[in-house]
């Protein structure tokens, strides 16, 4: 039998030793990293409603995806999917690949990111800075199949964030993003948020927060905001209304890191209490507004999240409710100098910047200025009406 063979036993022992050492390196890296900040943002037009940003841009790789990449590597190691010399392959629009390249280099493993050709050059440079290689494809729908092909060809491992994000994260505790938020809110006027607003790329963040809140018996609800070109909102709406979800694909999202052309397995609708769809023009206007208010550049997904915050704040005020709303500052804006912070990009996309900026400025000042964002909920009392 194989377990009686000396060579097999030696190889097995070496693999166990390598895996244990790899996990220790990742855990040591975690111990060297401080938790991310929770930043308040005052909105005088909404008295009694406190707004906070969980600043995930302060991770070593600059985004929320640092948490996901760490969890994916630990999950793959614990499952015996990674070995010394394994080529790690990931399908990513950028931020997850940046973070996975970081952890691959930490373990001495080669890394290949398969991404759309439209990915910002700043993200490509960040991946290469961490020792990764970028493999660009024309069609965003092809990145998973191409990743599987490359992994087979190299004898490596396809991380597959869109399948494993929700199950790789320890949602009960272990300093996941939900536990961190609730711990940091303990001394605030409204320590248990009425809502946490997040957007979906894999769906891992919404699954982690929704599961943790229910596990701890907390009243916090999860609003998932979806960008204009994404399949998640229509899928969720169909399920919530008892209809068969559509199978059609949509164009690739212009808001990098969130939105998907098709539904991904890591998106768990039952972990989300409500969803809204945010036009890209408003997402990017909100990005610019947050940039001005915080004095720092943020990415487009943070803007999408902030539109959801404004939608909830308007609804809570209309109902005479007070409380706190927490959302995610997903990444910094430095990676988008050639897109979201370039006027020529807006002209090429046909986006009306002035009108969108006016709407967000009015909404942030307390005016009922937001258009209908197609709110849908699993519950009768889901997203409050304005």
From TrEMBL:
GO terms for biological process: L-cysteine catabolic process to pyruvate. The keyword ATP-binding does not apply. Transmembrane segments: none annotated. It catalyses: L-cysteine + H2O = hydrogen sulfide + pyruvate + NH4(+) + H(+); O-acetyl-L-serine + hydrogen sulfide = L-cysteine + acetate. Its EC number is 4.4.1.1. It comes from the Bacteria. One of its GO terms (cellular component) is cytoplasm. One of its GO terms (molecular function) is pyridoxal phosphate binding. The modification N6-(pyridoxal phosphate)lysine is found at residue 65. InterPro entries: Cds1, Cys_Synth/Cystath_Beta-Synth, TrpB-like_PALP, TrpB-like_PALP_sf. It is an enzyme of class 4 (lyase). Its cofactor is pyridoxal 5'-phosphate. Pathway: Amino-acid biosynthesis; L-cysteine biosynthesis; L-cysteine from L-serine: step 2/2. Residues 36-331 form the Tryptophan synthase beta chain-like PALP domain. Pfam families: PALP. Keywords: Cytoplasm, Lyase, Pyridoxal phosphate. A cysteine desulfhydrase that generates hydrogen sulfide, H(2)S. The H(2)S produced by this enzyme stimulates respiration in M.tuberculosis, mediated primarily via cytochrome bd with a lesser contribution from cytochrome bc1/aa3. H(2)S modulates the balance between respiration and glycolysis, and also contributes to redox homeostasis. Probably eliminates toxic levels of Cys (which can induce oxidative stress). PANTHER family: CYSTATHIONINE BETA-SYNTHASE. Belongs to the cysteine synthase/cystathionine beta-synthase family. Cds1 subfamily. This is L-cysteine desulfhydrase Cds1. It comes from Luteimonas viscosa.
């Amino acid at each position: 039998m194989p377990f009686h063979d000396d060579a097999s036993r030696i190889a097995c022992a070496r693999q166990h030793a390598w895996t244990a050492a790899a996990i220790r390196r990742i855990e040591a890296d975690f111990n060297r990293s401080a938790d991310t900040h929770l930043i308040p943002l005052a909105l005088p037009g909404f008295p009694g409603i406190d707004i906070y940003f969980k600043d995930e841009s302060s991770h070593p790789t600059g985004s929320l995806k640092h948490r996901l990449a760490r969890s994916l590597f630990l999950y793959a190691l614990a499952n015996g999917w990674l070995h010394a010399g394994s080529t790690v392959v990931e399908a990513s629009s950028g931020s997850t690949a940046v973070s996975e390249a970081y952890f691959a280099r930490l373990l001495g493993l080669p890394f290949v990111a398969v991404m759309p050709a439209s990915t910002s050059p700043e993200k490509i440079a960040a991946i290469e800075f961490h020792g990764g290689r970028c493999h660009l494809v024309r069609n965003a729908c092809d990145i998973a199949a191409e990743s599987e092909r490359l992994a087979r060809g190299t004898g490596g491992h396809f991380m597959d964030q869109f399948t494993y994000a929700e199950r790789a994260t320890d949602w009960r505790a272990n300093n996941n993003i939900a536990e961190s938020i609730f711990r940091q809110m303990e001394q605030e006027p409204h320590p248990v948020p009425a809502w946490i607003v997040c957007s979906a790329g894999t769906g891992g963040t919404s699954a982690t927060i929704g599961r943790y809140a229910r596990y701890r018996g907390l009243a916090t609800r999860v609003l998932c905001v979806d960008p204009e070109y994404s399949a998640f909102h229509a899928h969720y709406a169909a399920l919530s209304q008892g209809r068969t979800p559509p199978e059609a694909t949509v164009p690739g999202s212009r808001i990098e890191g969130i939105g998907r052309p098709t539904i991904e397995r890591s998106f768990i609708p039952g972990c989300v209490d409500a969803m809204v769809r945010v036009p890209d023009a408003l997402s990017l206007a909100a990005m610019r507004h947050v940039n001005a208010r915080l004095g720092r550049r943020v990415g487009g997904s943070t803007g999408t999240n902030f539109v959801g915050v404004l939608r909830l704040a308007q609804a809570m005020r209309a109902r005479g409710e007070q409380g706190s709303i927490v959302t995610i500052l997903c990444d910094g804006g430095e990676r988008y100098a050639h897109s979201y912070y370039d006027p020529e990009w807006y002209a090429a996309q046909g986006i009306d910047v002035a009108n969108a900026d006016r709407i967000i400025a009015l909404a942030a000042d307390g005016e009922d200025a937001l258009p209908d964002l197609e709110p849908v909920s699993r519950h009768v009392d889901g997203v409050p009406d304005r």
